[in-house]
């Protein structure tokens, strides 16, 4: 029998919602990310007991959960953690960054410390190891990891399309296969593509988006990990995508397209993956502005 009592009797002490994110977007490798309307919600609720995980985290254990590890020793007596997420795990959509950010926010809420976005970002970035998912999770929108994270705005005409395979890819595996060094010519080409991508995304220039979403550093090594990747790129572009790339470390695929074509492009890419023997689903989430949202602030102390 549960020691937590009925769901209706439990009170939310404090809670935060954190958006998913797609990162790299091609040549913006480890520097560029975009917040998406897929959410993780983490709550501290009354009633003692073990953490409760639902949604895409249903089978997660508290020993594996670095969110719980962040606040375990800080939870007020007679409370427990509940986490619900619709962010696919190990699909390159920022699930770990969302958890890192949620942990940092809840840590501040339960200790009645101020929640400053810059502090949350700095800590989450260090824990995550790279800033391109932590930035969008904290600030929302299109975020460039410059000297300080710079929040930009995706052009109003543009939308996002995703193809999300059933088969995940380990981020550690996807990073380990990258070469430790690259030739100077390749670095120069990547810099050119990244500049084109940023200009294209903020001004809505299709040809610059297409050029910038063709990455020369990571994609050549990671694409073979995604069965049917080339077919999905081709299908997405034929359906109207301005550019297609691996989302984060994969296995998800992201396209930038005209907003009204987002669902069409997502379905085309997912269908292509599925026909190649890599079952996938399409999604066309909106871009989220503003980043994480604190929905309850009480400490319960």
Salient structural properties:
25% strand, disordered N terminus, 301 residues, Ribosomal Protein S5, domain 2, 34% helix, Alpha-Beta Plaits, 10 helices, four-stranded antiparallel β-sheet, globular, 2 domains, seven-stranded mixed β-sheet, alpha+beta
Task: Write up what this structure looks like.
With 301 residues, this protein is an alpha+beta fold. It has two domains: 10-151 and 288-296, Ribosomal Protein S5, domain 2, CATH 3.30.230.10; 156-283, Alpha-Beta Plaits. Helix content is 34%, strand content 25%. The protein is built from ten helices and eleven strands. The chain has helices spanning 66-71, 95-110, 117-128, 134-139, 171-176, 184-203, 206-212, 219-222, 229-238, 262-275; strands at residues 12-23, 32-46, 52-55, 79-85, 142-145, 149-152, 158-165, 241-246, 253-258, 280-283, 293-296. The strands form two sheets. Strands 1, 2, 3, 4, 5, 6 and 11 form a seven-stranded mixed sheet that branches. Strands 8-9-7-10 form a four-stranded antiparallel sheet, with helices on both faces. Helix 1 links the parallel strand 3 and strand 4 (79-85). The protein starts with 11 loop residues before the first strand and ends in a 5-residue tail after the last strand. The relative contact order is 0.19.
């Amino acid at each position: 029998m549960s020691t937590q009592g009925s769901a209706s009797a439990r009170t939310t002490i404090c809670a935060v919602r954190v958006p998913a994110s797609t990162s790299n977007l091609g040549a913006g490798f480890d520097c560029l990310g975009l917040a998406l309307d897929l959410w993780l919600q983490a709550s501290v609720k009354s009633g003692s007991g073990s953490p409760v995980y639902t949604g895409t985290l249903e089978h997660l254990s508290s020993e594996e959960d670095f969110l719980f590890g962040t606040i375990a020793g800080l939870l007020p007596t007679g409370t427990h953690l509940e986490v619900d997420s619709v962010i696919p795990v190990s699909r390159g959509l920022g699930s770990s960054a969302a958890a890192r950010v949620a942990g940092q926010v809840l840590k501040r809420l339960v200790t009645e410390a101020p929640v400053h976005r810059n502090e949350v970002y700095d800590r989450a970035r260090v824990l995550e190891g790279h800033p391109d998912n932590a930035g969008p999770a904290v600030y929302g929108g299109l975020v460039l990891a410059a000297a300080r994270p710079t929040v930009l705005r995706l052009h109003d005409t543009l939308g996002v399309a995703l193809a999300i395979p059933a088969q995940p890819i380990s981020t550690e595996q996807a990073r380990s296969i990258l070469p430790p060094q690259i030739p100077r010519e390749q670095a120069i080409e990547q810099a050119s593509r990244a500049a084109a991508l940023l200009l294209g995304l903020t001004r809505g220039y299709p040809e610059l988006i297409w050029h910038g979403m063709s990455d020369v550093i990571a994609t050549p090594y990671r694409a073979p990990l995604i069965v049917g990747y080339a077919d999905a790129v081709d299908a997405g572009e034929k359906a109207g995508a301005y550019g297609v790339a691996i989302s984060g470390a994969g296995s998800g695929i992201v396209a930038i397209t005209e907003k009204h074509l987002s669902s069409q492009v997502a379905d085309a890419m997912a269908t292509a993956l599925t026909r190649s023997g890599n079952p996938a689903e399409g999604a066309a989430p909106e871009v989220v502005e503003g980043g994480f949202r604190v929905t309850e602030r009480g400490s319960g102390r």
